Amino acid sequence: MRVAFVLGTTSGGTGRHVLMIVEGLVRRGHQVLVIGPGSVEEQFSFGGAGARFVEVPVSDRPHPVNDLRAVLAVRRLTRGADVVHAHGLRAGALAALGRRGPVVTLHNALTAGGFVGLVYGALERIVARRAGYVLTVSPDLGERMWRLGARDVRAAVVAAPVPRPAKRTPQEVRDELKAGNRPILLTVARLAQQKGLETLLDIAAGPWRAGGDTTATAAGEGAGGPAGVPGGGGDGPVGAARGGVHGTGGEPLFVVAGEGPLRGELQRRIDAEGLPVVLLGNRDDVPDLLGAAVALLMPSRWEGQPLTLREALMTGTPAIASEVGGIPEILGDAGILVPYGEAGRFREAVRELLETPGTAERLAAAAERRGREMPDSEDVVADVLGVYRA
């Protein structure tokens, strides 16, 4: 089978998902072509996986002249393909205009408004009406495509790579972060609008300290944290969870791994308010960080099937997350769901995890169980081959 992929600019889960499919197809002897911006080849090396790569610029924003060129290029390059599979709304619309009935996987929901929202709404209608099959990463995306008139909508199977084993102990990570006895809540995200990081800062700014909430601070103060971050110590049930090295109570330390355009804005607020939040930047030791965290914190505006959540569950780390997109389906009973943007409800969930006897242990056990149930790369490739043959 000759399969052509069309990609736009991507730096995260979409690219890793496509690379997983490309590798699986090549192993099975299929001919694979990948079309997209040069930046995706630099980051993911589809050529190194055995595919042929052809650079075609697909910009983040609509551009009539460049988009027409991209449509014509897709039409020319995919003329001999048995299947064209586009990933993302922009790439999907261009592929649908350049080739009849492509498969389109939608990885993200529109969270912007105004003119950008209108343009992307038009692209959604193009995909719904011209794609042969639409695969979606969350139920709400699927429902939207049906409403817009799509002919065949199916749930996409997404898998996270098996996390590498941690190279450091949780205590070594805690020492690096100067966490003392405080529980660590980890967020792994691009510092961008979709990830709801302003809500994370609202959570951290809540009444954790003495005088603000006697329940949250009953363990007392005293353990040191990173420079500029107040400490908290004491005893509590969370200290017995996940090896007894995840903090014993007091004010949590919020640790964020990732980089992005909002870093300056976030750091200014952290500094101005003295928030117990540390921005680590991009990290290549996420399994180590997960091992030291009592939970993954995901305050996102929207998520499809976030690989970070899957990776957390595969390491036995529960999550406190926004009840949006595909998160509830992935998380199941391995965490606590909270309505998006409700910082007070997030704080209540954190307190339940840290202070209610047995909660941390129960959720960690559920996370390990959910992690074992996650689909793998073979499931992903088998799923798309079923669509292609249809």
From TrEMBL:
Q: Which Pfam families match?
A: Glyco_trans_1_4 (PF13692), Glyco_trans_4_4 (PF13579)
Q: Which domain of life is it from?
A: Bacteria
Per its record, what are the GO molecular function terms?
A: glycosyltransferase activity
Q: Does the keyword Transferase apply?
A: yes
Signal peptide per UniProt: none
Q: Does the keyword DNA repair apply?
A: no
Q: Which InterPro entries match?
A: Glyco_trans_4-like_N
The alphabetical list of record keywords is:
Glycosyltransferase, Transferase
Q: Which residues form the Glycosyltransferase subfamily 4-like N-terminal domain?
A: 12-159
Its name, as the record gives it, is Glycosyltransferase involved in cell wall biosynthesis
Q: Which organism is it from?
A: Nonomuraea thailandensis
